[in-house]
Amino acid sequence: MLLAFGIAANVKHEIGRGEGGLDIRRGTKHFAAGAKVWVLPPRWGDGGEQVGVVGRHRGSPGPYILLVMPRRHLENFRTQGVYSPALFAAMTRPMKRGGSPGTSFALWEDKEAAAQVAAMWNQPTMEAHFDEPRGWGYVPDPPPMELERDRVVFYLAHFNANRAWYSSRLPPREAGDAA
């Protein structure tokens, strides 16, 4: 029997960690690379950067666990029906930490709402920081070399596995470049 609709995803095989995101790990501390998890609707108003997920702990056939993790560690978002009573109970279980006692995540309103969000999350994006005017936003992954934002042209100054930095100043020219 169908209990709800949800968004299923897989944990990325390679996740950049540490300074600059250059330390590459397989999976996360709690989930193996490629593990299927169920993503709950965003709760904090951060655009879904941190999401609640339900899945089976790395190397354990035991009960489902519920935890919060960065959405950038997930890929292959898709809408699926929830048929397992144990999974449904884990998805609606109150949080132990990180919220008011007795609060739990909500479920997706319907299949269409879940499908719309899954399609949006499948578009590769990365966080971007801009120098003048100061601010941040999101750009495609991989980031473009230059882009226009609020009628200012920004040039890619640096990027790593986690984010891109843009500058409104022209990049320096190489000594051999023609003027």
UniProtKB/TrEMBL annotation:
Specify the domain of life of the species encoding this protein: Bacteria
* Protein known as: Uncharacterized protein
Q: Which organism is it from?
A: Actinospica acidithermotolerans
